[in-house]
Amino acid sequence: MWKEADNKLYRRFTFNDFSEAFGFMSRVALLAEAAGHHPTWTNTYNRVEIWLTTHDAGNTVTDRDRKLAQAIDRLLA
């Protein structure tokens, strides 16, 4: 589940291996590009961490972040 703290939505994802994690990141990248909204994220082996915030709104969580978070969640459904 996504957690909201420090004006960001955050979620950590764990996969079976690096290839699966990287594939997920590629799918998220396509969603983000289509939405014109790009996450801050890290990847270490099978783990992906994502932080969403809207820079144009003063680095706070907006509906734009929540919509992208929901779209990311649908990738895993």
UniProtKB/TrEMBL annotation:
<dbReference type="GO" id="GO:0008124">
    <property type="term" value="F:4-alpha-hydroxytetrahydrobiopterin dehydratase activity"/>
</dbReference>
<dbReference type="Pfam" id="PF01329">
    <property type="entry name" value="Pterin_4a"/>
</dbReference>
<dbReference type="InterPro" id="IPR001533">
    <property type="entry name" value="Pterin_deHydtase"/>
</dbReference>
<protein>
    <recommendedName>
        <fullName>4a-hydroxytetrahydrobiopterin dehydratase</fullName>
        <ecNumber>4.2.1.96</ecNumber>
    </recommendedName>
</protein>
<comment type="similarity">
    <text>Belongs to the pterin-4-alpha-carbinolamine dehydratase family.</text>
</comment>
<dbReference type="GO" id="GO:0006729">
    <property type="term" value="P:tetrahydrobiopterin biosynthetic process"/>
</dbReference>
<keyword id="KW-0456">Lyase</keyword>
<dbReference type="InterPro" id="IPR036428">
    <property type="entry name" value="PCD_sf"/>
</dbReference>
